């Protein structure tokens, strides 16, 4: 899965001369937390986020009268509060690299570039949606979790055992344990008890968890 598979293309943006009040209104109206700042030629200048607004104007809402608050937000331009060197990423980068950069830098979005052109934005919410997709969280079926030795061929043994009687694996993922390896499978066409029986016949494979119910895959 690549960044372009999860990003929001052609994201909502704002001009640098617009006010903070305009930015807040746009965010509220469209339900977004990030606004790229582009000039008249479409060149990326910066990024405004809800958190950057709060950091740039710490006095807003703390002891100000309603008039003072309104005046401050309407007289302060986006260019004064924007992040001037926002983090960017290529649309063809892997999503795990986007997640790594966002986690390392403690940020909630990356602007997606094609050469010098802004083509999208990917946020922590997008990554969460991608995780749900990778885990098969929205797909019905039996969810099997197993533990086994960290050595070549173990996953193949499990997938073969499930596939031979007609089981269909719609999602799979794995992680390292202190000793060995863990993996989960989302399986259709087989009942939980069938899956357990098949897997428990395999040496060195431990069923750690199984849940869900038989779902027949639609052809």
Question: What would you say this structure looks like, in words?
Answer:
- The protein has 219 residues and is α+β, with helices and mostly antiparallel strands.
- It has two domains: 3-132, CBS-domain, CATH 3.10.580; 136-212, ACT domain (Alpha-Beta Plaits), CATH 3.30.70.260.
- Helices cover 35% and strands 27% of the residues.
- The protein is built from nine helices and ten strands.
- A four-stranded mixed β-sheet has the order 1-6-5-4. Strands 8-9-7-10 form a four-stranded antiparallel β-sheet, covered by helices on one side. A two-stranded antiparallel ribbon has the order 2-3.
- A hairpin with a 4-residue loop joins strand 8 (168-176) and strand 9 (181-188).
- It is elongated and about 70 Å long.
- The two termini are 24 Å apart.
State the gist of this model:
The chain is α+β, with helices and mostly antiparallel strands and 219 residues long.
Name the shape in a single word. Answer: elongated
Counting structural domains, the number is: 2
Strand order of the largest sheet: 1-6-5-4
Unreliable spans: none
Strand fraction: 25-35%
Number of helices: 9
What is the first-to-last residue Cα distance?
Answer: 24 Å
Helix content: 25-40%
Looking at this structure, what is the CATH superfamily of the largest domain? CBS-domain
- What are the secondary-structure elements, in order, as H or E? HEHEEHHHEHEEHEHEEHE
> Quick one: biggest sheet?
4 strands, mixed
Helix-and-strand structural type: alpha+beta
Instruction: Give the tally of β-strands.
Output: 10
Q: Give the averaged pLDDT, no decimals.
A: 90
The Rg value, from CA coordinates, equals: 24 Å
- State the CATH class of the largest domain: Alpha Beta
What's the CATH architecture of the largest domain?
Roll
